[in-house]
């Protein structure tokens, strides 16, 4: 949840590789830039178009986004900016997929995104531009409390979008035309696995359970997930559980044992082992650092 990079850079050698940042948040502000080729990655991507418009090529279909809009899409679909106009600027925000799914938006909203749809807010709010400036300033300070606040505000901005009117480009109707030999050929199976994990990660989940929702052999399901998501199913489930536990450590006074069980860890020892391996601190240290930021060690992310 706390991993963040100021700018996610894409490898020139492979459009799928994002230099190990698939599980990091990202933020960047820039002038619209025409891309030489499509790329794709595992994030949920937000694009703000402030005083500019842009044309995208998304999964082979041209999409024109008017000036002053906010769009949201799952960036595992090949996408490319092919034209832009206006003197404004763009803000790109990258949200790790496991974070997005842990935020528990409506099934309809999530389903549209996971089926390859581009969601377009019908209009920006007057606060959007100054708020993104504030987020940028807060992130540059690299303080844990401000970073967590920015994440919460991004989540709430997406939630507001999900509750207000938005449009789509009906891209999901053509998503069955994906080339099964491409890197995203198993997208529908991945969507089913992600949806199942998002709904059940706080319970006991086996590879057989996960594979059953797709009708795939467990070994093939594991290989397909690793190939597309660049992370194993086991590690992905643990990341969702860790994010759930982090939220409970910050937002509640629940005992660590209860938090471990509520987040889906089978035992307190397993929770401690995974938490410390991932964050190099105990759950209590994390909670103390958040609840007493002026006394805690600053975390650079």
Automatic annotation (TrEMBL):
Keywords, sorted A to Z: DNA-binding, Transcription, Transcription regulation
Domain of life, source organism: Bacteria
A GO molecular-function descriptor: DNA-binding transcription factor activity
UniProt xrefs under PROSITE patterns: HTH_ARAC_FAMILY_1, HTH_ARAC_FAMILY_2
Residue stretches making up the HTH araC/xylS-type domain: 191-289
InterPro entries (alphabetical): Homeodomain-like_sf, HTH_AraC, HTH_AraC-typ_CS, RmlC-like_jellyroll, RmlC_Cupin_sf
SUPFAM superfamilies xref list: Homeodomain-like (SSF46689), RmlC-like cupins (SSF51182)
Name by which UniProt lists this protein: Melibiose operon regulatory protein
Source organism phylogeny: Bacteria, Pseudomonadati, Pseudomonadota, Gammaproteobacteria, Alteromonadales
This protein's encoding gene: melR
């Amino acid at each position: 949840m706390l991993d963040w990079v100021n700018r996610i850079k894409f490898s020139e050698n492979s459009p799928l590789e994002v230099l190990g940042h698939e599980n990091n948040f990202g933020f960047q502000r820039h002038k619209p830039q025409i891309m030489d080729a499509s790329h794709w990655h595992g994030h949920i991507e937000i694009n703000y178009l402030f005083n500019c418009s842009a044309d995208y090529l998304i999964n082979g279909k041209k999409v024109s986004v008017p000036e002053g809009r906010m769009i949201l899409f799952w960036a595992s679909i090949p996408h490319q900016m092919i034209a832009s106009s206006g003197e404004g600027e763009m803000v790109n925000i990258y949200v790790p997929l496991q974070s997005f799914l842990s935020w528990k938006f409506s099934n309809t909203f999530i389903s549209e995104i996971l089926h390859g749809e581009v969601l377009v807010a019908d209009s920006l709010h007057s606060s959007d531009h100054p708020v993104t400036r504030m987020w940028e300033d807060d992130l540059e300070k690299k303080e844990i409390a401000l970073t967590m606040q920015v994440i919460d505000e991004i989540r709430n901005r997406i939630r507001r979008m999900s509750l207000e009117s938005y449009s789509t480009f009906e891209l999901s109707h053509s998503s069955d035309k994906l080339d099964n030999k491409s890197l995203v050929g198993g997208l529908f199976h991945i969507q089913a696995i992600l949806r199942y994990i998002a709904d059940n990660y706080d319970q006991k989940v086996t590879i057989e359970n996960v594979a059953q929702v797709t009708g795939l052999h467990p070994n093939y399901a594991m290989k397909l997930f690793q190939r597309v998501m660049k992370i194993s199913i086991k590690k992905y489930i643990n990341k969702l559980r860790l994010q759930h536990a982090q939220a409970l450590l910050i937002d509640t006074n629940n005992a660590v044992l209860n938090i471990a069980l509520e987040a889906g860890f089978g035992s307190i020892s397993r929770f401690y082992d995974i938490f410390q391996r991932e964050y190099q601190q105990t759950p209590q240290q994390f909670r103390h650092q958040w609840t007493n930021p002026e006394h805690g060690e600053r975390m650079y992310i």
